[in-house]
Automatic annotation (TrEMBL), chain B:
Belongs to the binding-protein-dependent transport system permease family. Keywords: Cell membrane, Membrane, Transmembrane, Transmembrane helix, Transport. This is Carbohydrate ABC transporter permease. InterPro entries: ABC_transporter_permease, MetI-like, MetI-like_sf. The lineage of its organism: Bacteria, Bacillati, Actinomycetota, Actinomycetes, Streptosporangiales. It comes from Nonomuraea indica. SUPFAM superfamilies: MetI-like (SSF161098).
């Protein structure tokens, strides 16, 4: 069948660099040679390489903070964004399109532009180098995406569902919480994954707005090590650190693949 | 449909959290940047008002021309490769049994951070690296423009394809099954079924994916920063990279802010025009 063949061929092309990543992250640090990168190594040194990376950068506490940010901020962002989307299209907020533009407009600002003002503002407000400050900024950056996706999603949901729930006397909040949110699980999950990954991999906000190991996210902690590659960290050590720190995201993808694979028929009710 | 009656008193309360977060943490910093763009400021002494001098400098800065050209290349390339191929993979796989597993290879790279991306690809693209060995050529992939931008675009496609696929799949799975079944019964299949039935139905989500890609590609930064830092010289800079360099490397906060304002206006205008057509 042509479709499967195309998918398999493309998939193999995509797996090539992934293979390189895994093979070279597992290679003993001293035996790396770019021109022989395809050949697998006899010795499996992934964990030794990762241990080297752990020693060079204080990753344990950073991992805990990052886990907190990447779960709490997307949860808040998804619910706040979905609520805005619901209010705009289902409750027919007056001038809804302009509210939507205002919220979605948040994405037009290049995030590097926010760094200096946020640094100054956070220092004044006592939010600099706090977990609360990081959660706030990550949530704000993610709200527009959630509002955009969920606004479009709810626009496709038949209005009769809302009317029926109103007939039964449900409040608008209850309809949102008990009907619309559950209805949009696949869209919510997709947005959650994107935002989780964005935060998990964020470098610059962590770099600018934190300083202590307790608050600093893991990619920022890793970055020093990674950029050191050119200055002495062996490539396999950097790759191993990058690989192991990507594992939570990979696990999340694989877990939600099953959710999507089940083929939830939503939005068409 | 008639306008619904009074639907709860809390409607403004419901949009308030989203609007407030965005206003305080995203719009306010922009206003501050807009002010700085009218000053000369080195980050230490007080900003000194210079009016439109920074914007006048934008017009005769050759580096800005390069970064504008590269940014446009990123926008066009992003629509073609990560978005176009993403749509293809989604359409091919969404209703296959076990289709999710076919998509796993595309999702894996998305988990990798920007720094990780550079670590994987810099050795591959180096002069004795796998790309040259495999193709039997000796190309300096990251040296000459526009080859370096195109090479980074391919790397970016490798990373971003999966996420576009994921969004398209969500769109495809949320469209109603009945019209498709009906069209199938009428004998439609393959390209015709896609073009005339599926494509119109998945439009809302397509609007989202293309809109996000448009905005993100105008702001392309991470991949360029980790792979070439905009170099060699300044030949692979995008507008976002130019802005960052002027601000944080050259400590010319005023001029960096002017580039930021330009980029924001362009991005805002593009999204507005796009959204007005697609989403309203």
């Amino acid at each position: 069948m042509i479709r499967r063949a195309v998918l398999v061929v493309l998939g193999l092309v995509w797996l090539g660099p992934t293979y390189l990543l895994i093979v070279n992250a597992s290679r003993p640090a001293a035996s790396y040679d770019p021109s022989r990168a395809w050949a697998p190594s006899g010795d499996f040194a992934l964990f030794a390489n990762f241990a080297t990376a752990l020693e060079s950068a204080d990753l344990g506490r950073s991992l805990a903070s990052t886990a907190l940010y990447s779960v709490v901020s997307p949860l808040l962002g998804v619910v706040i964004g979905a609520l805005a989307g619901y209010t705009i299209v289902v409750l027919r907020l007056r001038h809804g399109f302009w509210w939507f533009l205002l919220i979605f407009g948040g994405t037009v600002f290049p995030s590097q532009m926010l760094l200096v003002p946020l640094f100054v503002g956070y220092s004044d407000a006592g939010l600099y180098d706090t977990r609360l400050g990081m959660i706030l900024v990550y949530t704000a950056v993610n709200v527009p995406l959630a509002a955009f996706v969920l606004r479009n999603f709810y626009g496709g949901v038949a209005f009769s569902i809302f009317e029926a729930a109103r007939m039964d006397g449900a409040s608008t909040w209850r309809i949102f919480w008990r009907v619309y949110l559950p209805l949009s699980t696949s869209a919510l999950a997709a947005v959650f994954i994107l935002e989780f990954t964005f935060i998990w991999n964020d470098l610059i906000f962590g770099l600018t707005l934190t300083t202590t190991a307790d608050v600093r996210p893991v990619m920022t902690a890793l970055a020093g090590l990674m950029t050191d590659v050119y200055a002495g960290t062996p490539v396999p050590v950097g790759l191993a650190a990058g690989l192991v720190c990507s594992l939570p995201t990979v696990v999340l993808f694989l877990a939600t693949q099953r959710l999507f694979a089940r083929g939830l028929s939503l939005g068409s009710v | 449909m008639t306008r619904a009656p009074m639907l709860g008193r809390f409607r403004y309360g419901y949009v308030a959290p989203a609007a407030l977060l965005v206003a305080v943490l995203l719009y306010a910093p922009f206003l501050w940047t807009a002010y700085l763009s009218l000053t000369r400021y080195d980050g230490l002494s007080e900003p000194e008002w210079t009016g439109l001098a920074n914007f006048a400098h934008l017009l005769d800065d050759p580096a800005l021309l390069t970064s504008t050209r590269n940014t446009l290349l990123w926008v066009a390339g992003t629509m073609l490769l990560p978005v176009g191929l993403g749509l293809l993979v989604a359409v091919l796989s969404y209703d296959l049994r076990g289709g999710g597993w076919y998509r796993v290879p595309f999702m894996l790279p998305y988990a990798l951070s920007g720094a990780g991306l550079a670590m994987v690809w810099s050795p591959v693209l180096s002069h004795d690296g796998v790309a040259n060995t495999l193709l039997g050529v000796d190309t300096a992939f990251l040296q000459e423009a526009p080859v370096n931008t195109l090479a980074m675009l391919l790397v970016w496609t490798w990373q971003q394809l999966g996420v576009n696929t994921l969004l398209f799949v969500v769109g495809l799975q949320s469209i109603p099954k009945e019209p498709i079944e009906a069209a199938r019964l009428d004998g439609a299949s393959g390209w015709r079924l896609f073009r005339h039935v599926i494509w119109p139905l998945m439009r809302p989500l397509t609007a989202v994916v293309v809109g996000l890609a448009l905005v993100a590609s105008l702001k392309t930064f991470d991949i360029v920063w980790v792979m070439t830092q905009g170099g060699p010289g300044r030949n692979s800079e995008t507008l976002a990279v130019t802005m960052y360099k002027e601000t944080f490397v050259a400590s010319d906060y005023g001029y960096g802010s002017a580039v930021a304002v330009l980029l924001t206006v362009v991005t805002g205008l593009a999204s507005y025009l796009y959204l007005r057509r697609q989403v309203r």
